[in-house]
Design brief:
Elements (H helix, E strand, L loop, with lengths): L13 H28 L7 H4 L6 E6 L4 E8 L6 E9 L1 H22 L25
Antiparallel strand pairs: 1-2, 2-3
């Protein structure tokens, strides 16, 4: 038995149509599965009005142990010998590493748009004491 396929003037045969329909169905199924996985991986994050306002900080002190990193975000005013911790974040070493990678990526994107961020100490008006009221943080 012979299978004869005739294509006239660029028209697709039944076999070619079936193949295209199957490929389209498979493609749609893959897209639906990817969309479902994305929806399953999404996290609903709530942000209260108070938290959305944010808190200005201009100093961070970092301490760590074998199992965790503690980052204190501090607001320090020039000429005032007292500073206040505005937020303390405790992270696992794995999460600190991921945070560092995310910061690197975002700094790169920022610099592509706005130019390089410099570490020129002469541009900073007030110098914070690095051992202010406690041990020097280790990173």
């Amino acid at each position: 038995m012979f299978d004869v396929r005739v294509s006239m003037f660029g028209r697709k045969t039944n076999i070619e149509h079936r193949k295209t329909n199957i490929e389209t169905r498979i493609s749609k199924q893959k897209m639906a599965k990817q969309q479902q996985q994305q929806e399953e991986n999404q996290i609903n994050v709530e942000l209260s009005e108070e938290m959305a306002e944010g808190e200005y900080v201009n100093l961070a002190m970092i301490a760590h142990s074998q199992s965790e990193f503690v980052i204190d975000f501090i607001k320090m005013m020039p000429g005032i010998p007292k500073a206040r911790v505005k937020s303390r974040v405790i992270l696992t070493p794995d999460h600190v590493y991921r945070l560092m990678q995310a910061l690197k990526e975002n700094i790169q994107k920022y610099e592509e748009v706005y130019g390089a961020i410099t570490d020129d100490q002469s541009q900073i008006g007030f110098q914070f004491p690095m051992n202010y009221r406690g041990p020097i943080g280790e990173a």
